[in-house]
Write a structure and sequence with these properties.
It is a single chain. By secondary structure, this protein is an alpha/beta fold. It has a single domain, classed as 2-Layer Sandwich (Nucleotidyltransferase, domain 5). The chain contains four helices and eight strands, in the order E-E-E-H-H-E-H-E-E-E-E-H. A five-stranded mixed beta sheet has the order 3-2-1-4-5, sandwiched between helices. Helix 1 runs antiparallel to helix 2 and helix 2 packs across helix 3. It is globular.
Length: about 230
């Protein structure tokens, strides 16, 4: 299907942010969905507690092994159920707007080696890959195109001037150079959109202006998320 709009999707620990743009950069739709990532992490923490309590014998103690298996099954059920439902919802929305779906290329993400965050990073990548698998599958069933772009700098780079953004509190980032202010997740969707447009422009797919979509008046507002 020839795309009429561009849907960019930003995956985060607590939410998935979806933005639909016209080919010239006008924002048509903005939605945000909570993820069950914290529930998954809680079950994983229980598994690790059992394994630390019985470091050598947990595989051979029937009750402990069953408890670990139950938590593992809940992790799989929660992640697959959410991924399938979200994939179907995203594909239906993309079909409605005749969108090309732009995802982050998770293979380009580097592991965070800082202590205390490496485990969360690995668990997040595992969960994100399941979501992307379902989005890719459901989009393919509807003859929609799915493209992956390098996610580097999507939330830390100003979509207007390209300068580095600084945190302004409450997941809001600000550019010291051009005074751009935007929500972290919405900024990421704008930059994903721009990366796809830039890629298409280099390949000569279609001519799209590289003007960044205008920021909302109040980026901390939830207006438009439930439309």
């Amino acid at each position: 299907m020839k795309p009429r709009t561009i849907m960019s999707i930003d995956l985060n620990f607590d939410n998935v942010t979806i933005a639909v743009f016209t080919l010239n950069g006008k924002l048509l739709r903005l939605k945000r969905f909570k993820t069950p990532h914290r529930k998954i992490l809680a079950h994983r923490i229980w598994i690790e507690r059992f394994q630390r309590r019985y470091p050598r014998s947990w595989r051979f103690i029937k009750g402990v092994r069953r408890a670990i298996e139950r938590h593992g099954e809940r992790i799989r059920n929660i992640s697959w159920d959410y991924s399938h439902k979200l994939g179907d919802l995203i594909a239906e929305l993309a079909l409605k707007y005749h969108s090309v779906v732009v995802l982050e290329d998770l293979d380009e993400l580097r592991e965070n080696n800082r202590r205390g965050k490496e485990f969360n990073k690995k668990l997040g990548l595992w969960f994100y890959r399941r979501i992307q698998f379902c989005v890719d599958y459901e989009a393919g069933e509807r003859d929609l195109e799915v493209v992956k772009v390098n996610p580097r700098g999507t939330f830390s780079k100003c979509p207007r001037c390209g300068s580095k953004l600084v945190e302004n509190g409450n997941r809001v980032f600000r550019c010291r150079k051009c005074s751009f202010i935007g929500d972290r997740d919405v900024t990421a969707t704008i930059n994903l959109y721009r990366k796809y447009v830039s890629k298409c422009s280099r390949c000569g797919v279609f001519g799209v202006a590289l003007n960044a979509p205008k920021a909302d008046a109040d980026p901390r507002s939830n207006a438009g998320e439930q439309k």
